[in-house]
Amino acid sequence: MNLDIKFMSYRRLATIGSLALLILSIGSLSFKGLNLGLDFSGGTLIEVSYDDAADLSEIRDLMFNNGFDDFQVVNFGSNSDVLIKVADKDGNSQLGDVIYKFLQKADSSTELKRIEFVGPQIGSELRDQGGLGMLVALGMILLYVAFRFQYKFALGAVAALAHDVVIILGLFSILSWDFDLTVLAALLAVIGYSLNDTIVVSDRMRENFRGERGFEPEEIVNRSINQTLARTLITSLTTLLVLFALFIFGGDMIRGFSQALIIGVLIGTYSSIYVVANMLLGLSITQDDLAIPEPEGAEFDDMP
Amino acid sequence: MNRFSIWTYVFILSVLSIGIIYSLPNLYPAKPAIQIAYTDSGKSADQQLLIQVRDILDNKDIGTESVGLKENNIVAKFNSLDDQLAGKAALQRALLDQAIVALNLEPSTPQWLRDIGGGPLKLGLDLSGGVHFLLEVDIDSALDNRLESLLNEYRKKFRDDRINVESSRKDNKDLLFSFSSDEDYTKALKIFTQDNVTPLGTSLFDLRPNALRNLVELSYSQSAIKEIRDYAVGQNLMTLRNRVNELGVSEPIVQRQGSSRIVVQLPGVQDTTAAKKIIGKTANLEFRLEAASTSSRLRKEEFDFQDERMGSAFLEKNIIVAGERVTNANSGFDESGFAQVNITLDMQGGRAMQKATNGNIGRRLGVLFVEQKNKSVLKKDSNGEDVIEQSSYIEKKIISLATVQAVLGTNFRITGVGSPQEASELALLLRAGALAAPMKFVEERTVGPSLGKENIELGVRSIIIGLLSVIAFMLFYYRWFGLAANIALFANVVLITGFMSLLGATLTLPGIAGIVLTIGMAVDANVLIFSRIREELKAGKEPQTAIQEGFSRAFVTIVDANVTTLIASIILYAIGTGPVKGFAITLSIGILTSMFTAILGTRAIINIMYGNKNLKELRV
């Protein structure tokens, strides 16, 4: 394959697209917020299964009659599985048992699948830890890339990662998907994955910048992206293959996880092509930025 | 030409065989088993119980694979689930309350694998089913108790030393003393300063004297607070372990997490209400005066001694203090070198003890150990079949009966307790009856057994489907090189399983997701190398040179890309809990093994395939 797609001619378009997505995401995140899962919101969750299709309205009535008012009852996976979420500010760890008791009393075929209780304190701790972890990860990566490449690349890589993370978060907010610990794990995996991509592309740019002289930066960037394109697409494809396997066959408990990763891989692939390159050109990278510093006294060594 | 030295092959093969050997135990299915332990947690299973178990099972003609001693338990393995259930019923009926009989799954790892430390992967609760609790130890209230009793101690000391205290009170985390005169102040300050040294040489208090106003403010120092916290958590941990043992769960986990939290994991337990009741119970001790021989039957009760040789004694019905008031108990020696047990009560307990012992010097004070126990009886049900009926009852036994020598307060001691070993056993019992600080449940996760099994099936299915689709794609796209990459990929999965089993890491559902993700990403290194080889070929290089260049040029990129992913997964490990930690572990191990298989492994295979040939043409 001798690819020569003029990626950089579409720079403006990509910038506008990215900015639009970012503004949309940030807007939704600040006005609508994330639909925090149990791990972060605290509360009680109980999953039960019935022999036949469950009657959700009957379960809702049962909940009302037993004095609950702030709760959600939804099907989970199949129509015989039911998930009940109770927002509970006081951190009462007994609620799950209480609910399961009266559900079983109403219908003896009720089978308990899981109860999860997360105290309010743990929830807020996990929120803080998660946010902090994300920032630490970005910071460490910034340092590593700056050390291995150059600060302009590091800025590009971190911009790409932030871009990916914000857009995934935005999508979770817009679509009101549950954001729980496994999604946070997926987000960190996306950081790892997207970075992987970014580094491969950057690596090639570095090589080409150091190579022949006399080319425009835009031309070099374009050539680098074309040279790595086949690899970028194949890796994304194999990763997407396994992620779809996970999404379809992995069950409901890790559906959020695979959703986040699938979106992450798609956006990560895009960002490693456009965001990094855009940043580099925006920071007006030159061949001199990447020139290998000549060791002192090297020129004298050649003398006899 | 592209050849590895023989030593490189030896290295690759030895890493691979370690991986294969240690992943082998996962191929042997777990056998249904029963674990039997004496109800009395102080007693470990012995030969006698072993013979008893064998006889019971033989009498009922229940086939077993093996019956043997394992640590403090007897483990009987069965060939079928039916045998296991029949065995449990028979054993429960015969042993009743003598022993705890718990269902269990025992790995059937062959002996030679166990000898080299092999064992199957540990499953997280989301895969095995069970309960996870996170309890928070309330350190503030432990500190409050300590401060209250400290305040009382000093009040008493100043009274005894005739130091005039104008006022003394506890204010939040500080104690405030003000003295009537300079002289009192100086004397008191001397006492404080003397007390303010621990055996380790650190200071116990932060003292803030104010000579102008004859005022002393004191609070516990950071190191003292840390010590109090460690003591309270350690104490609660021990108490919890004892209580969890009562549940008869196989392989429970009771661990400290962070500075003041305790994790309890009970695989296989379904009845969380019962588990919580046992874990959360308090007050297992009662202090009562010995009843006078003249007192009426209505006001006294007869109790047996824990030590059967001692018989029984009458104690008053009135309880002076219960176990939750005990903040500390340890054994030591008195002035003449005899063993004694030192007890510390909280302020309220000390006041009650003082009131009760005032005017009762010379009488004997008894300590009762209270335990909730289960009693099982065989009964005939309406169909005339034997069923076991369980009822719980409370057993109280005297663990100490000693003469009161003086009016007691928050601190007192029991002497005449026998040998030092007996003294430390008594202290242990006293502590076991009490929690050093109250605890509350801050997190709870229960996973039903059906969900656990479902999760394993779904996880394994997605690994297989993911692996097959990647293998098919690589074969289709890269042909022979793809085959090499596929062999490496397969080796990678074996290595991940092997190393996780070897390290004793726990596999969780997100952990399985991590393996799946690794499969997708592991081929990346190969894709990088192969694309590079293609480019080199296109640039007109000789096939062998292209292979050589392709590997060496892609190497730096692969390392850079993987190190950064490793950074992300290490951070994930640091911030994550339970299942997410499982994901981080598999991802990290997967990154390391995939670098090994994709770079060294694939190269070795390609060297074997092409290395010695004189290639005119190469298709990648």
From TrEMBL, chain A:
Residues 101-282 form the Protein export membrane protein SecD/SecF C-terminal domain. It comes from the Bacteria. GO terms for cellular component: plasma membrane. It is found in: Cell membrane. Its main location: membrane. It is a multi-pass membrane protein. Keywords: Cell membrane, Membrane, Protein transport, Translocation, Transmembrane, Transmembrane helix, Transport. InterPro entries: SecD/SecF_arch_bac, SecD/SecF_bac, SecD/SecF_CS, SecD_SecF_C, SecD_SecF_C_bact, SecF_bac. Belongs to the SecD/SecF family. SecF subfamily. This is Protein-export membrane protein SecF. It comes from SAR86 cluster bacterium.
